[in-house]
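Dock glutathione; give full complex structure.
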Amino acid sequence: MIRIHHAKGTRSMRLIWLCEELALPYELAPVDFTPAGRAKPEWRRISPTGKVPAIHDGEFSMFESGAIVEYLLERYGKGRLRPAPGTPDSGLYLQWGWFAEATFARPLGDIAQHTVVRPEAQRIPAVVEDAKLRTQVCLDALEAAVPGGRYLLDSGFTAADIMMGYPVFLARRFGVLTPANYPNVNAYLARLETHPAFIKSQQ
Ligand SMILES: N[C@@H](CCC(=O)N[C@@H](CS)C(=O)NCC(=O)O)C(=O)O
């Protein structure tokens, strides 16, 4: 049984979403997402930097949401939700999955740190303003990639869309994506939100 260490509204939603799409059985282990909870030695043994998510798959445990997505696909995917390795489509799949976490989620992480995660005395408003500009550059890139709200790959929905759903969702939560800007990204998010597996991931 896969155990997903989960806190609502965090990247653990990617793993719930993936397991739901693949119809994999899983259970949720709630994480205490307070600063004290993330610092607890028992949580640091599972996630050394205290971040969410992590999983257990039997006795095996790992952290980093994108790596967990790939591991679950390798182990249980049976070729679903990702193109065949070594193909150009696989290159695009990797490009967008990495972009979602390594590029797009970075400024959003800065906004999160300086609006909700850190104690108020440690928040720097100028960091938030700069991070919003960097988020817009990523939204510009995505706007061009999902005309009419299509999925990232011509072949259809893949786990790259699961990776991307999280920063798009955060961009909306932080008010950088609004109903009035980025029509293609809004249509893309609306499309993702029709997935029953996405709805389950919001628990
Ligand atoms: N690259 C990591 C990022 C993990 C991450 O930053 N998680 C956030 C929640 S979505 C977190 O735990 N933030 C608290 C912190 O930074 O201490 C991943 O994809 O798992």
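Observed: The beta strands are 2-6, 26-30, 54-57, 60-63.
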